Amino acid sequence: MACFIHADLDAFYASVEQLDHPEYRGKPVIVGGLPGDRRSVVSTASYEARKYGVHSAMPIVRAYELCPGGIYLRGNMGRYREKSAEVMAIFSNYSPEVKQISIDEAFLDITGTEKLFGPPLETAKKLKAEVRDRTGLTVSLGIASNKYIAKIVSGISKPDGTSVIPPGDEEAFMRSLPVSKIWGAGNKTQEQFKTYGLKNGDDIYRLPLESLTSIFGKAFGLFLYRAVRGEGAASFDDERGTHSMSAERTFPYDLYDEFTIETELFAICQTIMFRLLDCQWQSRTVFIKIRYKDFTTTSAQESFGRPVSTINELFEHLSNLFHRKYHPGKGIRLIGAGLANLETGNAVRQGELFNSGSEKERDLEKYILEINKKFPGAALKKGRSWLTDT
User: What is the pTM of this model?
Assistant: First the structure.
């Protein structure tokens, strides 16, 4: 039986700020902007701030009305990525397969690791203690036989908790779950739940698939049908088999700004290419996945005559795919990308592979990879400066 842990760092940005600034501890910290930033939204609120009703994606203006005495910060992404890298390095000690889905959360496949670390709850206890001792941060864990349920139960146990759904209890758990706890059901969907008198997973379970797709649309209706039966959600699974490599990011609020979306896509490209270099694989096929605020999902794939050799090249291919598939003005809740049809790194390459400075770029990326492996806290990254004409 498969076993997954969903690990979610508690109030991550705010917790890092409280870690670095002891004078902030025990006080409401709101990361995302200053009170005068009219267009800013809350990225993370400390648990002290949440007592005032402040939450992620709330406009800073509204947060200030609720909590005028809070500590407001624009944040330090470089520092957050550094701490994230420290935590992810710890996760990799407990699982041969760690899938990071955002800067502060990841899935760990701990199937078959009992002889190394003990039963799942014992593994969780050790992992939490190591994260706390080595980074000063706390993490909430959810344990289940599939990633979707693990994701939900990690949220139930926050902050600094651990929850487990034993194998065989998945459907019962989902049927007893209040609809407000169904991950992926946003405000609009919650209003639909109220309209149709759906209060828990069991109410949804009793509706036939045809009714669910009629009410919620084909994609989300099918998603709900599977979810309340305790099945895994496709958004967390590798949909392209074992001969691919991918990464994705789920955002705390819908993204509309294309530069911000491209920046997230570039970060995904770095994650993928560093993993590709580390495994000494190569690929000629790229794919992208876009999930919108209404939960509809679109994807595209394209193959090329030679393997993708650098982060910049991967970003260029994926950016082109993105702009061909994206519906401008439509909010994005998740973006994913990857490489398919992986080949060993010893495969024959065409002679023009390393033209136009690609060989130097690849050597630099290998060097960054080695530094990050030797010093996990370094969290070296490439920038996007090459995109602009300066």
Answer: 0.64
